[in-house]
Amino acid sequence: MNTVIEMGPGSAIAKVALAPNETFTAEGGSMVAMNGDVTIETTTHKKGKGSIAQGLKRMFSGEGFFMNHFTASSNGGQVILSSTLPGDMMVKQMNNEKIVVQGGSYVASSTGIDIDFEWQGFKSVFSGESIFWLGVRGTGSVVLNSFGAIYPVEVDGEYVVDTGHIVAFTENLLFSISKAGKSIVSSFLGGEGLVCKFKGTGTVWCQSHNPQGFGKAIGPKLKPRG
C-alpha cells in the first residue's frame, strides 16, 4: 500500500497504489475512483468478519456503519480516496505502535493495522465529543483526514487543545478535559468551552478548523427543505 496525498491542504485526495493481490481497508463512502479490476468486500470490521454490534460502535465513534476492503488483481491497482469535509489528509507509518484517533478522522489502513472502538469515559461525554474514539494499532500505513489543514504538535510537558481541533495523538500522552477559562461561564462566553489538556511526551495532530463550530455557524443559514 503506497499512498500519495495530492491537492492538499484544502481539497486533499489520497491515491493508494496496490501491489498485485494486495488488500487495504477504507471507511465506507470514501472511495472516489478505482481501477475496474479492483474488487470490494464490505463488512462492519475486518475483511471476512463483522457484526451489527461492531457497526453500531463505529457509528457511535463518528465513523460509518460499514468498512470497505479493496483487493487488487494480479496486475495491481489504484484506489483514490477523499473525505466528506474539505481539508487535508496525512499518512502515518506505524511500527508496532498505537495512536488514538478522533471519530471521523479515520480514512484507510493497511492489513497490518487493527482498529478498536474505545470508551473514553465521561471525559468525552462532557467535552461534547465522541463517546468512543478509535484505538489504531499495529504495523503499516494509516490515512487520516482533517477539516482544514492538519499539522503535528510535539508535546513535551503540557499542551492544551480545543476538543474540536484534535485529529489524533500518540497513546503515551495523558489527557484530561477541563474548562478553557477560570469558570464554565467565562469559558463558554469566550467561545472556547472545554479543552483537552495533554501531559507527557508525544505528538498531537491538530486540524485548523472545528467541524462542530462550522456546523453551528452555517446551520441557521441553510434553508429548510420545502
Features:
Double-stranded beta-helix, 226 residues, mainly beta, 11-stranded antiparallel beta sheet, 4 helices, 15 strands, single chain, 4-stranded antiparallel beta sheet
Structural write-up:
The chain is mainly beta and 226 residues long. Helix content is 13%, strand content 50%. The chain contains 4 helices and 15 strands. The protein has helices at residues 52-60, 122-127, 184-189, 211-218; strands at 2-6, 13-18, 23-27, 31-34, 39-43, 67-71, 77-81, 89-101, 106-110, 113-119, 132-145, 150-162, 166-170, 174-179, 194-207. 32% of the residues are buried.
How many domains make up the coordinates? 1
User: What about the largest sheet?
Assistant: 11 strands, antiparallel
The CATH class turns out to be Alpha Beta
What's the end-to-end separation, in Å? 46 Å
Low-confidence stretches: 121-127
Structural class: mainly beta
Shape type: globular
CATH superfamily: Mitochondrial biogenesis AIM24
| SSE pattern, N- to C-terminal | EEEEEHEEEEEHEEEEHEH
* Rg, alpha carbons: 18 Å
Number of helices: 4
The CATH architecture comes to 4-Layer Sandwich
- Please indicate the percent range of residues in DSSP E strands (runs of 2 or more): over 45%
Indicate the CATH topology.
Double-stranded beta-helix
Mean pLDDT: 80
Percent range for helical residues?
Answer: 10-25%
Number of β-strand runs: 15
